[in-house]
Amino acid sequence: MIRELAKYSFTVILLLMLQLLVFSKLNLGYMFKPFPYIWFIFLLPFSTNRYTMLVLGFLTGFALDFFSNTYGLHAAATTLLAFGRVIVDRRLNIETAQREGYERPGRGMLGLGSYLLYLTGMCFVHHTILFYYEAFRFSLLPQVLLTALLSTTGTVASVLLLEAIFVKRSIR
Fold first, then answer.
1. CATH class as words, domain 2-166
2. How far is residue 76 CA from its own chain's centroid?
3. Most exposed residue of 1, 11, 137, 140, measured as fewest CB within 10 angstroms of its CB?
4. pLDDT given for residue 169 in this prediction
């Protein structure tokens, strides 16, 4: 229990530091903003209580808001992402996945195509909420959707790169 808590604490701190020190400083255009810190929500095991997942989503977003002065934008979007993960996980037949030895949704459980669809869909919803709250005008909705789409591609690419580097093959 303590080992798992330390592992996830280290992971979220590392992802937040990467986001703040590397990805937030990249100048890739104003519409292309990768947010790989949300990978933390995808790393949480199926056994995570849904309320714990919501609290962890909020705290992760709040920590990024605190250090980047975004006034709750990331907290709201990341909490919604955690809520969406709870709902989607119910549809993924968690009991069967746990019997087969999977601890979280991933490439091994879903296959590469389905995993990309899962990851892309969840990231797109997160980014749409984040950028809409930032713009907060219906007149900017096309720009928000384009920014969300471009940023989703960057986030998915960075998450896949991080997975290739850090995730053991047995968990995939």
1. mainly alpha
2. 13
3. 1
4. 59
